[in-house]
Amino acid sequence: MKLLVSPPPPLFPSSPCRRSGKAILQKHFHAVATRESCKCGEANRTAICRVAETHGSEQVKGREPLRRGTVSPRLPVPEHIRRPPYDGTDHLPDVNPGRQMHDRESIVHMRAACELAARVLQYAGTMVKPSVTTDEIDRAVHQMIIDAGAYPSPLGYGGFPKSVCTSVNECICHGIPDSRALRDGDIINIDVTIYLNVGYHGDTSRTYLCGEVDEPTKQLVKVTKECMLRGISACKHGVSFKAIGERISEHVNKYGYSIDPFIGHGVGTIFHSEPIIWHTYDYEPGFMVAGQTFTIEPTLSMGSTRCEVWDDGWTAITVDGSLNAQFEHTVLVTVNGAEILTKC
């Protein structure tokens, strides 16, 4: 998550995202995958991606491209609220190589942080209506978080200027709230992360329908949620991390959508850490261990997963203008499965 003129070597050496000028998008709430979008380890994957791109092209007709609005100044946080370590610097922290494990006490703190994040997201969703601006959503989210004595984790993370991400229509992720008003037929992903005063992050997102939305778009949103839940259902102590991407990919392939090249991550006292959670086939080595917490957050596209980043260094949009949807939960691995910590 940062605009860097002379960046350090990225976590992943290549990306299907095209950058404007010298803008470099690094991991903020997600990280960029290294493989090309359609290389998913199956003989029929190329054909499926072509079908998805056709769907995307048909869907784009008649819809105005997303345009940026005016970004208002950063909102203040009261002095008594505990700050995360990255506050006060525009430096983008590296993804921590440690895998965050929790004992009984820290699980209590994680549940509290995630429960607050879930409530904030639920409230933000009630604001999704035509004519409401994403800046208004940001202000409401910010106020609810600081009223609870917590810090909005995105604010200042690598220089991100707002307290929540609002990604509309063809924006894949990292959308910066601004003066653009939502319109009838839009979809919007709202990504909320909070840093509770005990020092733990809770991270969650979902895609909302704005007004009257067409049936193909409703199906994209529905299938994306199903993919997240299928990924979660694969989680259990001793299971390979690869099972998450396999379970998601199997479901996506039934519908011909593309899986965008962004990933989940470990979360806890540190915002972003290992393990890296892929939503496609055959990436992350290793096995889940009871007590680990991480996010599962697949993003699906109606068309191509090739993206470009606006010169704000954050806003990632599909090159072909196709719609995207995303859902995210923070989960705790248990001996018998996984507990969804951000369920509201």
From TrEMBL:
This is Methionine aminopeptidase. Cotranslationally removes the N-terminal methionine from nascent proteins. The N-terminal methionine is often cleaved when the second residue in the primary sequence is small and uncharged (Met-Ala-, Cys, Gly, Pro, Ser, Thr, or Val). Residues 60-92 are annotated as: Disordered. Signal peptide: none annotated. GO terms for biological process: proteolysis. The keyword Hydrolase applies. Residues 77-92 have a biased composition (Basic and acidic residues). InterPro entries: Creatinase/aminopeptidase-like, Pept_M24, Pept_M24_MAP, Pept_M24A_MAP1. Substrate binds at residues 174, 272. GO terms for cellular component: chloroplast. One of its GO terms (molecular function) is metal ion binding. Binds 2 divalent metal cations per subunit. Has a high-affinity and a low affinity metal-binding site. The true nature of the physiological cofactor is under debate. The enzyme is active with cobalt, zinc, manganese or divalent iron ions. Most likely, methionine aminopeptidases function as mononuclear Fe(2+)-metalloproteases under physiological conditions, and the catalytically relevant metal-binding site has been assigned to the histidine-containing high-affinity site. Belongs to the peptidase M24A family. Methionine aminopeptidase type 1 subfamily. It catalyses: Release of N-terminal amino acids, preferentially methionine, from peptides and arylamides.
